[in-house]
Amino acid sequence: MAENRPLPDVLAPFGSLIDRTAATFQLDGQLLRAQILVESSGNPWAFRYEPAFFTRYIRHNPHAKGFLYGPLAACSYGLLQILLETALELGYPDRPEHLFVPDTGLVWGARYLKKCLNRSHDDVFTALQLYNGSGDAALAYAHKVFTTAGRPV
Description:
Blueprint: H1 15-24, H2 29-40, E1 47-49, H3 51-58, E2 75-77, E3 82-83, H4 84-89, H5 102-119, H6 124-132, H7 135-148
Antiparallel strand pairs: 1-2, 2-3
Helix pairs in contact: 1-5, 2-7, 5-6, 6-7
């Protein structure tokens, strides 16, 4: 049985939003909270530029959904640090800065996590790796989310 240990109060302002989002996408609320802590430490204004992602997937690819946004397409936004390019691929219709709005960024990040779960046949650990990327860093990321949630790996 999974151990549910309390997570930091930094997520308290988002508690009901996290619960609603988890229910909407049929996600484990405790793991979603842990993922938010790992991704953004609960900061809805969290922002990160991924230069290698820009160079590899956006810069010379006019077919990229975020090509016209330039480097902003390779930035992660908000509580779940959803990449703009990923959100656009999922159908996100708005401007990049709106991903900082907690219920917007959280919904699009959760939508992507659900897609990763479907791709991994509901293997949560693998889905977290897909969410993060690939390789050793993605493995460490999934491990950190599970550890933060107080779950065995």
